[in-house]
Amino acid sequence: MITVKIPKDVLDLFPMWQYICPNCPDSKVLSEKVHHCVKCGAEFNEEKWRVPPRFLKNSKAMSDYAHKVLAPKLSPEQRELLFKHFTEYLRDGFEANNFDAWTDVIGSPSIVSVGAYQGKYCAELDTSDEIVYKNLSDRSPIYFRTY
Questions:
Q1: Which residues of 122-145 are buried (b: 16+ CB within 10 A; e: fewer)?
Q2: Which helix (H) or strand (E) holds 76?
Q3: Rounded to 10 degrees, what is the CA torsion of 102, 106, 110, 113?
Q4: What is the Cα–Cα distance from 78 to 129, expressed in whole angstroms?
Q5: What phi and psi, each to the nearest 5 degrees, are found at residue 57?
Q6: At 43, is the secondary structure helix, strand, or coil?
Q7: Alpha-carbon distance 141 to 87, whole Å?
Q8: Cβ(51)–Cβ(18) under 8 Å?
Q9: Which label site among 10, 47, 121, 141 has the fewest CB atoms less than 10 Å from its CB?
Q10: Above 60 in pLDDT, residue 147?
Q11: Residue among 35, 138, 134 nearest 146 (CA)
Q12: Helices (H) and strands (E) in the chain, counts
C-alpha cells in the first residue's frame, strides 16, 4: 500500500492509544479496563502503559486493522468512509512492470516510468484503440481516479 494523506475524520475512527505492559517485552495489547497485567501481575498504570498504536507505523497493518477490527464496529456511513481510504482493488497497478494484474489488454500499450501519480510506473496508451481493464463485478461502491 502506498502511503497517502488520510483525512482527520478517518483518523478519528482509529484509537489514539494502546496499552502494553512495560515489564513484558512480548506483551500483547491490553484493554484500558484491565487492572493488572495477565502475564506478570503488574498493576495497571495508564501513563506508563500507554503507547501509540503499532499499526500506525505500517500502512499494511493499518489497512488490516481497519478491515478486521474497526469495520465490524462502525455504522454503514463510517464504514464507507473508512473503506474509501483503505481498500485497494488494483494494488499492483503497474509496479510489476507488466499487465498481469489486469483482466485483459487490447492493443499494445506500454508501461513507462515517467508521469506516474503513485509508485514508479504507469501505463501509456497511445491510441484510442488501446485498452487495459480489470473486472470488478462484485464490488460496491467503487472509488477510482483516472488521469
A1: bbeeeeeeeebeeeeeeeeeeeee
A2: helix 76-86
A3: -40
A4: 40
A5: -85, -15
A6: strand
A7: 11
A8: yes
A9: 47
A10: no
A11: 134
A12: 4, 6
| Contact (CB, 8 A) for 61 and 55 | yes
- Residue range 74-127, pLDDT digits in tens: 888 888 888 877 766 556 667 788 888 788 899 989 988 887 766 788 888 888
112: which strand partners? 122
89, 142 in Cβ contact below 8 A?
yes
Rounded CA gap, 87 and 85, in Å? 6
Residue type, 134: K
What residue type is 105 in one-letter code? V
Specify the residue for cell string 484503440: 129
How many whole angstroms separate alpha carbon 87 and alpha carbon 48? Answer: 34
Query: 47 by DSSP, 3-state: which?
Result: helix
State pLDDT tens for residues 41-86.
888 888 888 888 877 777 778 888 888 888 888 888 888 888 877 7
Domains in the chain: boundaries? 1-13+58-88, 17-52, 92-136
Quote the cell numbers at residue 105.
Answer: 489488454
